[in-house]
Amino acid sequence: MDVFEAIKDRRSIRHFKPNPITDEQIEKILEAAIWAPSAGNLQARDYIVIKDHDTKKKLCESALNQHFIQEASINIVVCANEERSAWKYSGRGRELYCILDAAAAVQNILLAAHSLGLGACWIGAFNDGAVSKILNLPRGLKPIAIIPIGYPEQKPNPPPRFSLKDVSHINRYEAKRRTL
Ligand SMILES: Cc1cc2nc3c(=O)[nH]c(=O)nc-3n(C[C@H](O)[C@H](O)[C@H](O)COP(=O)(O)O)c2cc1C
Predict the structure, then answer these.
(1) Which of 18, 77, 95, 178 could form a disulfide with 48 if both were Cys (CB 3.0 to 4.6 A apart)?
(2) Residue nearest to atom 26 of ligand 1 (CA)
(3) Is the CB of 12 under 6 A from ligand 1?
(4) What's the pTM value of the predicted model, to 2 decimals?
């Protein structure tokens, strides 16, 4: 799949078929994640793969009961590793770079899943403390995204995007009226 096609055709999937995905597919997706860019190549992120039904159910409850978390074959929780980034970049590493490292990995995961014919969704609405407890995360590992992944049961229409002319600026920022 061409990269532009993958970027444009990828959609957030919130309904999944019950079919399980394979360990080989999971490995390919994680492989895509580790090749995402990171500040100073510190790769200040870790991945927790959730296959267990009970853990998915708890995660679902910690994320406003977004039902598709427990319907998905697996979930990947991407965590920012604050200490790994702070070691080199102090406060900017702890507060910003590790979050960006994790976010870049999330995007690669979404695109890789899509290119394998799978569906996924970036979930950011969850209770950090509850997720940390469920997954036994140590201090300094901050959950950034829950990503349910499975075979898609829907093909949503693309939601609108701002037009290029509304959000792009040449040489300096110019105030614009934006409409969707
Ligand atoms: C930081 C972030 C947090 C998000 N949190 C949620 C969420 O909690 N639940 C959800 O269903 N979608 C969530 N989304 C997905 C967005 O709703 C979705 O990307 C957006 O509506 C555009 O749709 P598309 O992904 O199909 O292009 C989140 C996306 C981002 C980037």
Answers:
(1) 77
(2) 11
(3) yes
(4) 0.97
